[in-house]
Design a protein that fits this description.
alpha/beta, Rossmann fold, six-stranded mixed β-sheet, binds adenosine-5'-diphosphate, binds magnesium ion
C-alpha cells in the first residue's frame, strides 16, 4: 500500500484517503495577481489513480496549463489541497517540492529542442536527474541509462543518430525518453502531439498505451479528439472549472 502522510483530519469530510490515488486535488483554486485578478482555476477536485491515462481538454485560456503546472509542482495553488502519492504538497518548502518533482514526475511538452550536433542518446543524457550524485554514476552510467529509456520508447536503433534524421513522432519519443530518465511514476504532457500529423500522433499514442500497460500514470492535455479518445478517462476545463466528461 502507498504511504499516506496526510493526517485524516486534513482530508475533507466524508472522504477516506484512496490508497491508489497518485493525484488528489481538493477544491484547488489559482488566482493570478493582475488587475483585475485572473481566476485561472476554481474549486477543482480531481483524483487520478495509479495506472490511469487521463486526458484534459478545454478551450485556449481555460486553465489547462495552470492545472498541469500545479500538478507538476511548478506552481502552487492559491487555495485548496494537493496530495501527490499521499503527500500533501502545498505546504512543502521549495527544496522538498523539487526533490518530489524530480523523483516522481516526468514532463513532455509540445516540442522540445534537440541539440542538432549531438546524437540522440547524448540528447537524452543531457536531461537533469534530480537524484543524489552517486560515485558510480558517471558518463558511462548515464549513457547506459539513456539507451535503456530509448529502448523503452522503441528507439534503441536511433541511439547514435543525429536528431535531424528523426520524424516528428520519433522526436517526441525522444522527449518521452528524457522524461523517463528520472524513473517517474507520473507523466504530465501538455499538448504532446500539438506539432504532429496524424501518423506521427498515432506513434506517440501507441507509446502512451505501452507506458500505461507498464503501470505509468499519464495526464495528457490535448486539443485533439483522437488523442483524448485514447485516454481511459476525460475531464474538461472550462473557465477554470473542471468537469468529468461522459464516458
Ligand atoms: P490554457 O492552457 O487552457 O490555454 P492557461 O492555464 O495557460 O490556459 O491560462 C488560464 C488563464 O490564466 C488565462 O486567462 C491566462 O491568461 C491566465 N494566466 C496564465 N498564467 C498567468 C500568469 N502567470 N499571470 C497572469 N495570468 C495568467
Ligand atoms: Mg496551455
Amino acid at each position: 500500500m502507498r504511504r499516506t502522510s496526510a493526517p485524516a483530519s486534513a482530508l475533507p469530510r466524508d472522504e477516506a484517503p484512496d490508497p491508489d490515488a497518485v493525484i488528489r486535488l481538493d477544491s484547488v483554486g489559482r488566482v493570478f495577481d493582475a488587475d483585475p485578478p485572473v481566476h485561472a482555476l476554481r474549486e477543482v477536485d480531481l483524483t487520478v489513480r495509479s495506472g490511469e491515462h487521463l486526458s484534459v481538454v478545454g478551450p485556449s485560456g481555460s486553465g489547462k496549463s495552470t492545472l498541469l503546472n500545479i500538478l507538476g509542482l511548478l506552481d502552487r495553488p492559491s487555495s485548496g489541497g494537493y496530495w501527490l502519492d499521499g503527500v500533501r504538497t502545498d505546504g512543502l518548502a521549495d527544496p522538498e517540492r523539487t526533490a518530489l518533482r524530480g523523483s516522481r514526475i516526468g514532463f513532455v511538452f509540445r516540442s522540445f529542442p534537440l541539440l542538432p550536433y549531438r546524437t540522440v542518446d547524448e540528447n537524452v543524457m543531457l536531461a537533469k536527474i534530480h537524484r543524489a550524485p552517486h560515485p558510480d554514476r558517471g558518463r558511462g552510467f548515464r549513457r547506459e541509462r539513456a539507451r535503456e529509456v530509448l529502448a523503452r520508447v522503441g528507439l534503441a536503433h536511433r541511439s547514435g543518430s543525429l536528431p535531424g534524421r528523426l520524424s516528428g513522432g520519433e522526436r517526441q519519443r525522444v522527449a518521452v525518453a528524457r522524461a523517463l530518465l528520472g524513473e517517474p511514476a507520473l507523466l504530465l504532457c501538455d499538448e504532446p502531439t500539438g506539432n504532429l500529423d496524424s501518423e506521427n500522433t498515432a506513434s506517440v499514442l501507441e507509446l502512451f498505451d505501452v507506458l500505461q500497460a507498464q503501470g505509468m500514470t499519464l495526464v495528457v492535455i490535448t486539443h485533439d479528439d483522437a488523442v483524448s479518445a485514447r485516454a481511459s478517462r476525460r475531464v474538461r476545463v472550462h473557465a477554470g472549472r473542471l468537469r468529468q466528461e461522459e464516458a
